[in-house]
Structure formats: structure tokens, C-alpha cells
Design goal:
heterodimer; A: mainly alpha; 2 domains; rod-shaped; B: mainly alpha; Arc Repressor Mutant, subunit A; 77% helix
Amino acid sequence: MELANIEKLVEKYLNAETTLHDEKTLRKYFKEGIVPPHLLEYAYLFSYFANTKDETFAKTIELEPKKFKKSTVKWFSIAASIVLLFSIFIGEQAYKRHQAKKQFEQISKGLRLLSLNLKKGEVAVSSLYVYENTEKNTVK
Amino acid sequence: MNQPDFLKMVSPFKDKVFRLAKRLLISREEAEDATQELLFKLWKSKEKISDYKNIEAFAMTMTKNYCYDRLKSKQASNLTLVHTNYKEKETPLDKKVEDQDSVNLVHVLIENLPLQQKTIIQLRDIEQYDFDEICKMVAMKPTAVRVALSRARKTIREALIKKHNYGVS
């Protein structure tokens, strides 16, 4: 296509008045033809557009990543609740044992005190026996 | 619709979705994630899809909205990443390198456009959709689309000329 036409098209292109067909013509021209210096910027522009269109989404499309995630979350919560229940159970037992130990200690302390005081009484009573014996002896 | 059918259906436009996502989100990884997510969403709503006349246009609209939301929700700090390391490369070794540079420059220039212009230029100049379709995808009136496109093209052209003259003088 002649230069005059291209110049006209380029003008229209800048004003966004070109049709897709016009733009195809431009793209072809700047790709193949020898571009005059005053239109060089369009050559860069269109070659950039062409390059960019080559880029593709190379990854494989996964259609159930979410489902997998959801089920793992579910299993995690089940596991967590089991662990929680178990630890509550263990904790309860430990608490009970602790409580029983405490009670046992209290009782044994009480008993010890009691026996200590009883011993004091015994000593006192035994001195009484001594007194009684000597009294008997002297009376005889 | 089973999986192979669905994959067959999306294969003509999955690259377009990816390229639009990449244009808007800039980073390749983000764009890949977005594409994956969008295709999965499409798959989930596969019963509804059959009602749409133009699934491709629907997918592109979805992509646009999804990416806009993503950009809104987090201030994309990677926006500056690409063009900061660009300017240093201004040593024209030979013609070929210079050409490649100018082509790369177009990428940076488009990146710096406003979001809307970026979207429209991607849809028109790279994916070559016609105006009616673009209007639907971006939910804008035809005149507004044309104005935005014209502005985008002019901005890029002027920047390219500036760069070129600078190199010559």
C-alpha cells in the first residue's frame, strides 16, 4: 500500500477511528514494508503488540484446587477437635488426681497433729503412773 | 458439561485472560494465579455459563473486574518494580539492541497509562476486539472508549518520538 494511504490510516488510528480491518492493514505494513523514518515509532508499537500476543498461559488448568483445600480444612478441624477433647479428658484426670493428693495430704497432716498431741497426753499420763507407783510404795 | 469439554471451551481465550491479567497486575505470578482463579470460577458456574451468548466476552469482563478489585484491595507495590530498572539501559550498542529497547519501551509506556486506558489498549490493539465488545467488557459508552483509546495511543506515540529524538541529538 502506498505511503499516502498509510499516513492517512495512521492519523485515523491515532484518533481511534480505524476499523479492525484498517488496523490489520497497518500491522501488516509495519511488519513487512520498509518503514520511513517519520513513521518508525509505529513500527515499534506494532511489533510490540505482535510480540505480546505470543505470550500464553502455559500452566495446566486445575479445576479442583479449592475442593482439595476445603477437605483438608475439614480434616484439620476434626483432628483439632479430637485433640482438644482428648486434652480436656487428660487435664480433668490430672486435676482430679491433684485434688485427691491434696486431700490426702491434708488428712495425713491432721492425723499427724492428732498423734503428736496424743503422744503428749501419753507422756503426761505415764508420769501419772510413776506418781501412783511411788505413792503405793511409800504407803506400804 | 464435563472437564474436557470445559477445557476445550476456554482454550481459545485463556491466553487472552492471562494477558489482560498480566497487563493489569504486572507480575507474571499474580497473573497466573488470577487466571487460575478465574477459570476455576468459570468452571464452578458452568451451569449458568451455557446461558451466556458470548462466554469469551463474559470471561474478559470477569477478568477486568477481578484485576481491578485486586489492585484496589492491595496497593500494588510492584508497580514501580518494572520501570525503575528500565532507564539505565540507555546505551545503544547497535541498531538491533536499540530497536529492541524501543519495543520494550512501549511496554513501560503502556504500564504507565491510567488503568482504564491500559485495559482498553490491551483489548483493542493486542487482542483486537471490536468496539462493541470492548464497550460491554469495560461497561463504557462507545465515545468514551474511543476517546480513551485515542488518548492512550497518542500518549505512547509522543513518548516514543521524544525518546527517539533524544537519541539522535
